[in-house]
Amino acid sequence: MLAALTYAAGALMLGLAAALGLTPAKVAITFTILALLINAVVFALLRSGTNLRFADPSLTAEQIAAAVCCLMYVAYYSGPARGIALLWVLMILVFGVFRLPSKQLWPLAILTWVAYGLVLAMLAHQPDASLNAPLEVFQWVVLGVVLAWFTYMGGYVSDMRARLRRNEIFYRSMWETAHDAILITGPGGTIQYANPAVLSVLGHEPEKLTGTPVTRLLAAHATPDVTTFRQYLEGGVPAREWNAVELVLARADGHEFRSEEHTSELQSHHDLVCRLLLEK
């Protein structure tokens, strides 16, 4: 969907460029036809399941390569607006940041740089070439530097996302099999995750706890510790280290019991996340 929208935006920009006389109308028409064909082929591969035979079933690298070829076609006919057209390459490569590791991003960046070099070479060999050679070479070198920086940073982000996914799988596997009740809460103390042990320890279905305030699990009669801890969970600044603290909890059936509580704070997308481990 995002790829199709990106192609659509490109077609609209080319239509505007043609209307302003910056590029021939045939370029906008040809680009639109190519975009429709590429998206139709990708959709057919995904629909038929043929994509599952590829190393990356999402076909991200293949789609990026096809989009780069379309961009080079546009750049060939863009004349003075060629530098502006090249900005589109960043919009294309950003799709790889979310799916591809560094070792797959670098070949795509090199392909883009070499392809643009070939475009300049073809333009230079035209009989009526009116290239500003120093400017074009400078743009080509700058493109290489930008591609190298973007690919390095994009690979770093992609690799970091992969590590986060592995860590999430590791910790989730531990939480899913733990005998203690484990809750993860977001800002304001809203429960975002509850492991299966919550059912045996607290008598609540884990799915039904999601989206509810964690303070509902505390016993009604508040001690100073419970009151302060409640303020902490609801976004207040903790007045102490909340580790191995005894609290009185209430099961779903109303039965109250003492529990030792441990918390740790995680930083996720700039939101404070509190992990609670409640021991029966």
Count of DSSP E strands?
Answer: 5
> How large a portion of the residues is in β-strands, by DSSP E?
5-15%
Order of helices and strands: HHHHHHHEEHHHEEE
Number of helices: 10
Rg over CA atoms, rounded to whole Å, is 28 Å
Q: Which residue ranges are poorly predicted, with pLDDT under 50 across at least 5 consecutive positions?
A: 268-275
What structural class do you assign from the helix and strand content? alpha+beta
Shape: elongated
Helix content: 55-70%
The strand order across the widest sheet is: 2-1-5-4-3
Calculate the mean pLDDT score and round it: 80
Distance between the termini: 48 Å
Largest β sheet strand count, sense and barrel closure: 5 strands, antiparallel
Describe the protein's architecture and organization.
The chain is of the alpha+beta class and 280 residues long. The protein is 58% helix and 14% strand. It has ten helices and five strands. Strands 2-1-5-4-3 form a five-stranded antiparallel β-sheet.
Write the layout of secondary structure elements.
Layout: H1 2-19, H2 25-48, H3 60-76, H4 82-86, H5 88-97, H6 102-124, H7 133-177, E1 181-185, E2 191-194, H8 197-202, H9 206-209, H10 224-233, E3 243-250, E4 256-268, E5 271-279
Antiparallel strand pairs: 1-2, 1-5, 3-4, 4-5
Short description:
With 280 residues, the protein is of the alpha+beta class. Helix content is 58%, strand content 14%.
